[in-house]
Amino acid sequence: MVHERLRRTAPGHSSPGAARCRRKFLRIFPRGFYDPDYVGLERDYKWAAHKAWTQALAREHFRAMLEQNEFARIADHAVRIESRTNLLFSFEKMALRDAVKSRAGARAFAVGLFELLHGAGAADARFEAWCNVVAGLPRKQTRVLTWPVVTVFGFIAQPEKHIFLKPNVTRLAARAYGFDFRYESRPSWDVYENYLAFAAHVRRDLKDLRPRDQIDIQSFLWIQGSDEYEE
C-alpha cells in the first residue's frame, strides 16, 4: 500500500528535529499529504476557501470592482470567505469586520489587498505596505494588526506563494524542527521572509511526500505545534 512505502525518516541530511516532526506527521497521517483524514481535517476547508476566492475575487474581477469603487463589496467577499474557516480567532474576525465597516476602512483594505496580491512592486515593499494598511484600519477595541490577519488573505488567495502565520504554534513548530525562526510580534517583511524560508526548507525536506502548496506546509507545521495533535 502507498502509506507502507512512505519513509518515516527524513531523506538526506535533515536535522534530528526535522526527522522527529516527519515521524509525528506520518504516525498521525500514514499516507501523508494524501491521507484521507489529513485531507478532511486540514486541507479541504482551506482549499475550499481558495476556490471561493478565485470565484469571487479573481484578479480581473477584483480590478473591475476597484475601478467601480466597490470597496465594500470587495471587503465583504474577503471577510465572508475567511469567516468560513477557523484560521482567525473570533476576536480577530470581529476586529476585521469592524475595521472595514466604514467606506474609508473598506477602501484602504481593498486597495491595499489588491496591491499585496497583484501589485507591480517588489514583494518586500508590497508586504510592508500591506502591514501599514492593516495598522491604519479603524479599530474599536481589539487591534487589527496581528500576524494572522496580515497573512490570512494572501494564504487564501495565493496558497502557492503565501503562507499563514499563527505565532504561538509556528514558534513551537520551528523549535521542534530545529529552525531558527526569528519572530517578532509586530508584522514585518523581515519576519515573514524568514518564515517563507522556513516553509521552503520544510518543503525541500518533505519533497518525497509531494506537498502541493503552502496549505500543506502550513498544515504540517500546525500539526507540529498545535495542542490538537499532542502526543
Summarize this structure briefly.
The chain is mainly alpha-helical. The protein contains twelve helices and no strands.
Descriptors:
231 residues; mainly alpha; 12 helices; globular
What is the secondary structure topology, with strand pairs?
Layout: H1 2-5, H2 16-28, H3 36-56, H4 59-67, H5 71-83, H6 90-99, H7 103-118, H8 123-135, H9 147-157, H10 167-177, H11 189-205, H12 214-225
Fold and architecture overview:
The chain is mostly helical and 231 residues long. The protein has one domain (2-229). It contains twelve helices and no strands.
- Mean model confidence by pLDDT: 94
Bin the strand percentage: under 5%
Could you list the spans in which at least 5 consecutive residues all have pLDDT below 50?
none
> Helices and strands, in N-to-C order?
HHHHHHHHHHHH
